[in-house]
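Issue: copy button drops trailing tokens. Both records pasted manually instead:
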Amino acid sequence: MALRRVLGLGGALGRRSCCSKRPLLPDFVEALRAMVGGPNVSTAMAVREQHGHDESMHTCAPPDAVVWPQAVGQVQELAALCYRCRVPMVPVGTGTSLEGGVNAVQGGICFDLSRMDTIAELSLEDFSVAVEPGVTRKALNNHLCGTGLWFPVDPGADASLCGMVATGASGTMRPNVLNLRMVLSDGRLLHTASPGRQARWEPGDRDRLGGGHAGTHSLAPCRKRAAGYDLTSVGEGPRAMAPRPEHPTPALTGPAPLQRPLLPDFVEALRAMVGGPNISTAMAAHEQHGHNESMHTRALAAGGTCTGEHSVGLGKQALLLEELGQEGLDTLRRIKAALDPHNLMNPGKVL
């Protein structure tokens, strides 16, 4: 009876704004339990707070409830319910992002996709694998042991593949995604590529239009890179894999703390120290995750971008305006409004 009342949009619940932070009505919570089972729904404050932040400096913003769907069909049903009742939806993988992308700044329901962790299909012939959204990169590579293939994208943390797609992890996820199956805000299912994996859409930001996704990814051999990643629905899909290097190239690594203005002179000195006519050198540097705004402003002035791997989320909204301009930002908003007319998919982020 509670489920029928909720789905019928009875009373004030049907008028709930996505900007409201009023507590969820008991009938709505009971409807969630009817869809995924009581043990897969929690309104406990400790659980909500755990899901209300990532590893960034942004203040915790807990959702009103957390659900653990275990199948794409359940995600579709949950999304359709939230759509009809105008309740925001925030998908969460492992919570290792760095821009507040999982913070439920307008309340709503957190979709914890960690229990959708099946590796559905592995094709050694075309170097691709289909996974559910909760599969992590380490779990995938453990599954690939003995095949001569691996999934080469490594953001450092043992992130979920769906989260890596959402944030553009390491700045290299796009070429490793062959297809995504995404649940839209009203519960419909969108395939981002044709059966032949000709891309129709590209991986987006944490302010995604779909509530969860599965995918097909490309894998790479140990010695050469291969293509092919397919993500399906709320958390399944193939991913690209790469072969494991049998003879890694020696590298000189280590922390070199210094003030940022000294970096150019330091880099040139390092080149002179390790370089030579018969030596090839490669240097890699990673800014500490303080996301210093002046650094990003300088990057924009030099023709770069404000985000390369951690998405925009909450922390870089002003920089996104500086990079794209008002017209570019308004265009993105119109695209989002066409697919998410009630602004229920992770609202308050990016745009």
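Record 2 (pasted manually too):
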Amino acid sequence: MDLLWLLKFQLKLEVESLALVAVIAWCLWYSWNQVHLGGAQQSAWHIFQWAWTYLEEFQLANHLPTQPRFVSEVLWSPPKPLWFKVNIDSAVFSSLKSVGVGIVVRDQWGNVAAAMSKLVNAPLGPLETEAMVMEEAIQFARDTGFLDVIFESDSLSMIQSLNGSLIPPASIVNIISGSLQAIRYFGQVEFVYVPRTGNKAAHGLAQ
């Protein structure tokens, strides 16, 4: 608390910077405990990326900024010829300790080729839920026989983790690893981020 007081009132740091400092401190504490219990030691860069991602996901889950009226909505777009696009989304029902799963598969003409909507008893956070649903979608697409597939989600951190541009947070690293192993059974696969406005069908199924 003394450190936060110093940063806020003496060094005049903004609230956003203070939040990041607090999360980094928690991640350092958690990482130290994991090492103490026999876990692997994480690099400073990994801890920083983990803290940044954790804070970003928390802010996204707790604050949805109002879009200016002049901003055009991003709409769903069809995949390349002979490809299929799998849109996924999830919904967390904290009171039920469960999550909703929404998966929609469409072809190049926008026709629905397959879909899934179900409730899973799993008390997970927003990021863990999105990763779990992606793993479910990969299995679903494989079981239904699709070969060349684009997986779209409105979880930026998860898509970046799957594409290798972000080190996965510890809470989803095993799920990400399993998903990357599972895509070996496809011909070609892409992971693409799409804003919520371009993911409405899957979002509706997850509710």
